[in-house]
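Standup notes, structure subgroup. Blocker cleared on the zinc ion input:
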Amino acid sequence: MKNTRMNKRGSGKKSRNTATFPSLVLGSLLIGLCIFLPACASSEASKALGVPGEASSGKKALSQHYEVYAEGVDADDTARMLECFFQYATEFFGRSPTGKMRVNVFASRERYVQGLVRDGFPDPGGFYGQLQANMVVYLLLQRTPDVTREVILHEAVHQFYALAVPKKPGVVLPWWFSEGMSDYMAKRDWDGTRLREREVQLIALEEEPQFTRDWLMGPNMDLPAMVSGSKPFPSPGHWAMARFLAERYPDRFRDMRKLVEDGMKMEESWGLIMGGSPDEWVGEFMAYVRSQVQPWWVVSHAWRQKEGAIEAVADSAAILARQDKPDEMRVVISTGESKGSVGVIFDYSSPDDFSMIQFLPDGRMQIVSRKSGGKNRILVEPVRIGDQPRHRVHLIQGGGKVRVRVDGGVLGVYDTQGRFGLYAEGCKAKFNVSP
Ligand SMILES: [Zn+2]
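Run returned:
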């Protein structure tokens, strides 16, 4: 098969890949199912390797099962991550491919196209990562290292599955099945030695739980059509369905997978293994999706969960907004060495309309209310509080008012509709938030 496009996220769809798009991202709370594999095979020393005919700009790393070519990310680190993924995928699918698998990461779209053309494939249009007919993964660097890793893993799942479980003639897999498995297995954190399912999925690509829930409750809801693949449904649904089955019914999911791989239609295998029509599962599926909704909306792509804290790496203004409206929120902000602007948001209603206590890089603090049209209304003139590496903010709200405390002192009482958030701009900062 020529030009097998395994990834649908492309130019023809609503772009959720741009850094400026205020995606309302909701992750999912995952506990357990960690993969602790400190002994994953290490890769051989990397060496420079260019795309033939081009200036050398990337590195190649060889590991037990992978041959990685990487520009803009560490080839050795990527190979180590893929070896950990290999062990996880072998356990998940119950088998594994033989031979080395090739994964190519290119620093720019231009380099990505050059790499594909070099191997005899056409320009893939807007695709950002794909598995080609030669079973080699090609992908572009994404807006953040976390998203790049997620895309590498997403494509690596397709590659692993296609090689470990070759598709039999005439077998058509529903879109949710292949994309959902890839999305589900790719949403993992890599710390250099271990690949673990995320405790809280903050970073981009997914506004799944809320989006899926809203869609399920809408007029297009048709679970039987989703399962059989007879109607398209939104990509967050792929992930939600695969995850629901993998987490709640791993044995049945595996059995269903085997029947489908052997040529049975998905809806038949569902009836046989899950029991009943998919319609009878709507209630449980929706309850599951609802239970995954996160307290945070990632308004801008700069946030990640790290060791119990929330970390921002923000070149430009980045917002993380809460969905719930708690009575209070305590935040300790650590900026470390980085000099940028950080803040705690209250009365958030949109990226253009919120109030915040902002700590400026020159050691001053101010309270700003931003209104749409880019105009800033200053509520409290900036005051010098000194160049502190830490700031403590305590917000208490009720009855349409919020009391703002900074480092123990009351700053003021302001109107609010109840939504809190975090802010970072031009810096790396860590936020410890409670509750
Ligand atoms: Zn895909």
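Discussed briefly. The pocket of zinc ion is lined by residues 6-7, 154, 158, 179, 182 (CB under 6 Å).
Next: hand off to the docking folks.
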